[in-house]
Specification:
The protein has 315 residues and is mostly beta strands. The protein is built from one helix and 20 strands. It has an 18-stranded antiparallel sheet, with helices on one face. Strand 7 and strand 8 form a beta hairpin. The longest helix has 12 residues. The radius of gyration is 26 Å and the shape is elongated. About 23% of the residues have low confidence.
Length: 315
């Protein structure tokens, strides 16, 4: 069964239609997808890299001891009132769906896993879990009962590898596609949850994916970030592949007794900025310009205290 068929079946089910047979006995808990915590050890310039998380959160628990509510219009609630919780069961006492305020939850079972479906504010979201109750896919639609009006907003695919040393699976890849903005992001992770690579693509009219940006992160033995390499690409007329037009590299070096690392920033292999800490709270920032001229800026406790112009020479 494809996602469109599942979408239509669940849409009818949540509205009380004949598709209720899709919803069988529920598991005790279907976990929500893992939220991934920040993987950076230093502040990243690129905010999209800071939106990656790794810690799990509690799933949606459907208690079995709640009786089927009376099917009548609930009392009007003020906007500050606690949302009303309703658990609907079929004649066999099995859960049909769960309602919390304006959000609906439903559960589907497959031979090799389950799906958690939510509807809220016109957005239909389905999360698919494997037999180990680990999320493998999340898809969101613009909610509509009509097949012709269905609109897929985005999809996320999760892939896992096995760590033989820790004897458990870990999240190794997340592929996110935004169908409205026509772009794709592919993130790769190490076994400790650190983001190691992030690639961004745009979709062409013939559905090809063109690489426009790639970020590679490197860590030392202590798993501290020591290098971030960002490569920007463009496609020239007549060329099938994207070519590099700008490369940005950040390097970080750590010293005992200092909270923040010294940092160097390069553009196309040319040093542009160097930050050196003279003590844990004071630093000097060197700015290098074309023609051998540079500016040295002094900071104490985060406050600029002065600057000097110098000739950078060989940098």
């Amino acid at each position: 069964m494809n996602l469109v068929s599942i979408f239509l079946a669940v849409s009818v089910s949540l509205s009380g239609g004949p598709a209720q047979e899709w919803f069988r006995s529920r598991p005790e808990m279907i976990p929500a997808e893992k939220k991934l915590s920040s993987v950076s050890d230093v502040s990243f310039e690129d905010s999209y890299l800071e939106d990656v998380y790794t810690d799990g959160e509690e799933g949606v628990v459907l208690p079995s001891d709640i009786e089927n509510p009376l099917l009548e219009e609930p009392l009007a609630q003020s906007k500050d009132a606690v949302p009303l919780e309703l658990l609907f069961k079929n004649p066999e006492g099995k859960v049909k769906f769960f309602e919390y305020g304006e959000e609906l939850f439903d559960i589907m079972e497959f031979p090799d896993g389950q799906a958690l479906i939510t509807v809220n504010s016109g957005i239909f979201t389905m999360r698919i879990y494997n037999e180990d109750r680990i999320i493998t896919e999340k898809t969101s639609w613009k909610n509509s009962i009509s097949k012709e009006e269905k609109t897929i907003l985005n999809s996320v695919l999760y892939s896992y590898n096995y760590d033989s040393e820790k004897e458990k699976k870990y999240l190794s890849q997340v592929r996110t596609e935004d169908f409205q903005k026509k772009n794709v992001t592919l993130n790769l992770y190490a076994s400790d949850g650190k983001l190691t690579e992030s690639s961004q693509f745009i979709k062409t009219e013939d559905n090809k994916e063109l690489l426009i940006r790639k970020t590679v992160l490197t860590y030392n033995a202590e798993r501290k970030l020591i290098q971030k390499l960002i490569t920007n690409y463009e496609q020239k007329p007549g060329e099938e592949k994207s070519i590099c037009f700008l490369e940005k590299k950040y390097t970080y070096s750590y010293r005992e007794g200092f909270d923040d690392p010294d940092e160097k920033y390069y553009e196309n292999s040319v040093l542009r900025i160097s930050t050196v800490y003279t003590n844990p709270s004071d630093k000097t920032v060197f700015h290098y310009f074309d023609g051998g001229v540079g500016v040295k800026v002094f900071y104490a406790d985060g406050i600029k205290t002065g600057e000097e112009t110098f000739f950078s020479g060989g940098r």
